[in-house]
Structure formats: structure tokens, C-alpha cells
Amino acid sequence: MKNHLYFKVLVSLLILTILAALVVTLDIGLKATSAIILVFFMVKFLAVAFYFMELKTAHVFWKSAVLIFASIFLAIVLTLV
Amino acid sequence: MESQSINSKNIYYPPGGILMWIIIFLELFTFGMALVAMVAYSKDEPEVFHSSRLLLNTTFGLANTVFLLTSGFFMAKSVESFKANDSIKSSLYLKLTMLGGFLFLLLKSFEYYEKIGAGLSIGYNSFFSFYWMLTLFHVIHVLVGLVILSSVYVGLHKKNSSLELEDFEASAVFWHMCDLIWLLLFPIIYLLF
Question: How far is B36 from chain A (nearest CA, A)?
Fold first, then answer.
């Protein structure tokens, strides 16, 4: 069961990585491109933390801490771009 | 075979241990602040950052992301096998994890060789100053991670080994931290500008 879960997470991560690289080739403006790339980043970041690092089994404090870090980083970079 | 487990629901015992997670947050804040500074600097020199970003090989960055993510997958599988007391599978997955790390370093070395050959060193412009500092600092983490995984591998093959699940998980979490840092670096350095 878990075997398939890890594999599904890996496939999703690889698809998001390739999509992020493809988005750059589209002519949709810097803001939109940045937003899409950074949203993909956040999903991948949380997937690695929650599934590969098994944070989903951890105390809510650690889950929240990672989520807050990724959200703040995303918000700051999106504001600056 | 009896499987091993740790109660990670306890706030003091996150997977990999509380000290490792303190290190992870310190690392993420360090890299995060440097990347925010890089984005802020790009506002002063947008043309320089855009033209410099185009000098990077996105395919190399993409391939390195694939190597690290796949390596992270094998690391998770290795921990899972270790928990199930299947040291043969755990060892095999650990070797595949390290292979991913070595491939990452090999490609990164080639990329650095190309950049140095083209004269794009650390002092070339502010974009490349950030590029070299951030990616080299990350490479050091990957090297340290490989040393840690090698010691786990040796421990796994020792007779009467004292390798505990806590040690294995802490090493795995360190390796995944290298993934996390790369996931921060890749979109901003290779794609954003």
C-alpha cells in the first residue's frame, strides 16, 4: 500500500517539475509565470516533507511549522517579483 | 519478523528527531533569506538577472531535480524496509539513494566546469554571485549527506550492528533536507528571472 503511495508521490513530483520548466516557455507574463512556478514549488516542498520525511505522522506543531515556512516564503517571493 | 516504530505523534519526537528538525529549520531560513535577497536584488538589475538566468542550462537543473527527487524516493523506501527489518532491501535502496546523490554531483560538477570555462565565475555579476554561493553551499550539504549515508550503509552491513531506527531516520531526514533546499533553489535560480 505504502509502496504505491511513495511511487505516486514521486511521479507527481516529477510531473510538477517538468510542468514548471514548461511554464517558463509560455508567454503569459512574469507575474503569472512566477505564481505558477512558485505554487508548483510549494506543492512539491510539502509533498517531500509530509510523505518522504513522514511529517504527516508527526505532531501538528511540526506540520504547521513547515506549512507556515513554505507559505511565508511563497508570499514574500510573490510580493517581490 | 517484528517491525520497528517510533511514536512520532509526540511533539518532542518528530520523524528523525527534534535536533535534526531544528537544523532543518535553520537551514531553510538561511537559504530562504538568501533567496529572498536574490529576488530583491533582481529588482535593481532585472536585465542582468534575466540575461544571466538564460546562460544557465535549465535541462541540467531539471535533471538534477529528477536525480534528487528519485534519490529521496529510494531513501523513503530504504527507511520503510529497515522498519520492516528487511536489511537486504534497505541496503539496496540505500545504494540507489547514494547513486542519485553521486549523479547529482557529477552533473553539477560538469555544469560548474562549463560555467568556469565560459568565464561565469562568482564575481561575474550579482546573479552569478548568488548562483555560486547558494549552489555550492547546497553541494556541501549533499556531500555531507553522502558521508552520513555511507556511514549508515557500513553500519547496516556490520555484524552485531548497533544501528538504531532513530539513527537511520535522522540520516534519512538529513538527506531529504537536501531535496527540500534544492526545491527552494531550482525554481528561483533556474526558472524565475
Answer: 6
**The three grid cell numbers given for residue B18, joined into one nine-digit string:** 527534534
Q: Please give the pLDDT value at position A3.
A: 60
Nearest neighbour of B69 by CB, restricted to A3, A17, A34: A17
Grid coordinates representing A12?
A: 507527481
Average pLDDT over residues B157-161: 80
Cα A56 from Cα B50, distance rounded (Å) = 38
CA distances B138 to A1, B15, B108, Å, are 33, 22, 11
pLDDT one-digit tens code per residue, A23-57 = 988 888 888 898 999 999 999 999 999 999 999 99
Give the percent of chain A with pLDDT over 70.
96
- Residue A81: CB atoms within 10 A of its CB come to 18
Q: At what angle do helices A30-47 and A60-80 cross, to 10 degrees?
A: 160
CB atoms within 10 A of CB B20: 20
Question: Is residue B183 exposed (0-12), middle (13-18) or buried (19+ Cβ within 10 Å)?
Answer: buried
Contact A55 B192 (CB under 8 A): no
Angle at B160 between CA B159 and CA B162, to 5 degrees: 120
> What CA–CA distance (Å, rounded) separates B84 from B156?
14
Q: What is the pLDDT of residue A30?
A: 81
Task: Indicate the residue type of B2.
Answer: E
**Inter-residue contact A74 to B187 (CB < 8 Å):** no
On whether the CB atoms of residues B134 and B27 are closer than 8 A, the answer is: no
